[in-house]
Amino acid sequence: MSLHHRRLSLAQGASLCLFGILFGLAFLSLAPRAGSLVASFLFLLVAWFCLWFFSHDLAHHVVGRIVGVGFRYYFLGRPAITKLKLPVVSELSRKVPVLGLKVDSSTLESVSATRVRAMYASGAVFSMFLPLLVLPTSYMVNSIVGVLLTLLSLANILFTVYFSRRVGDLYRARMVRSVSL
User: Is the Cβ–Cβ distance between 84 and 38 less than 8 Å?
Assistant: First the structure.
């Protein structure tokens, strides 16, 4: 089984996401004491990445469970952005696996469209805004570091809003049709 098709149980995937977020928070708390500006910046980048990457599917999972959407398993796969055929981004994203969460489609029949939309949108929302937790510490470390991470965060938000509406979670949320119960 290739890396791009590796399945993880729901418990394994959720644990990995939670560990990744905690790892990011640990790096965030250690960044001001890292010993040098370069080390602090690297710690903050790791924290930012962990909060961005690991929050996405955990948000789907938690919000989905709250609203009644079930899941089958986590998996390593390719991001939806590969569908856009962007020269550099699509090629790079084909090589880098991302964590995914397989929805149990049988549970969608008994859940309102609004709840399903909330589940789909939650991943994009959390991966856009949870990395913002890094910004106060980044400005405490150094104003240039703060500006760089602010620009990274803004680029992430703009990228996600623009492309997720075309092929990602925000697109899926928009495409959910109301079900008659």
Answer: no
How many Cα atoms sit within 13 Å of 65 on the Cβ side? 9
Task: From 25, 4, 41, select the one nearest 139 (Cα to Cα).
Answer: 41
Q: Which tens digit of pLDDT belongs to each residue from 122-179? A: 999 999 999 999 999 999 999 999 999 999 999 999 988 988 877 788 888 888 875 5
Find the domain containing 43 and state its range. 3-175
Query: Is residue 125 within a helix (H) or strand (E), and if so which, with residue range?
Result: helix 113-129
- Quick one: 18 exposed, middle or buried, by C-beta within 10 A (0-12, 13-18, 19+)? middle
User: Is residue 88 a part of any domain in this protein?
Assistant: yes
Secondary-structure percent of the chain, ordered helix, strand, coil, rounded to 5: 75, 10, 15
Does pTM surpass 0.85?
yes
